[in-house]
Amino acid sequence: MAVVAERAFTSRATLQRIEAGDPGVSMGIYAAVLQALGLLDRLDQLADPAHDEIGQALASGELPKRVRMSTKRRNKSDD
After folding, report:
1. Model confidence over 5-53: pLDDT tens digits?
2. DSSP state letters, 1-54
3. What is the pTM of this model?
4. Burial of 7 (0-12, 13-18, 19+ CB in 10 A)
């Protein structure tokens, strides 16, 4: 733990806060720790909706079951 803290330019106490899930730790510290662990290149996947199965399921549950075109639009396409 001391080596990771040194490489991330932070303290062991901050690393312990990260491990405990403390929301007060800044995103910059997380990025520094990920860099020290060689995982920084995967940071972009954190908020990628393609990797969020639960979010995708919730979003698809909110989609309408049927979609109908308005009559005005349908009549214009017949011209």
Report:
1. 999 999 999 999 999 999 999 999 999 999 999 988 888 877 788 888 8
2. -HHHHHHTTS-HHHHHHHHHT-TTS-HHHHHHHHHHHT-GGGGGGTT-GGG-HH
3. 0.58
4. middle
E-strand spans in the chain? Answer: none
Pick 62 or 29 by higher pLDDT: 29
Domain count, the chain: 1
Question: Is 15 inside a domain boundary?
Answer: yes
Query: Is there a domain that residue 30 lies in?
Result: yes
Cα–Cα distance for residue pair 19/43, rounded to 1 Å: 17
Q: Domain range spanning residue 24?
A: 2-74
How far apart are alpha carbons 33 and 39 in whole angstroms? 8
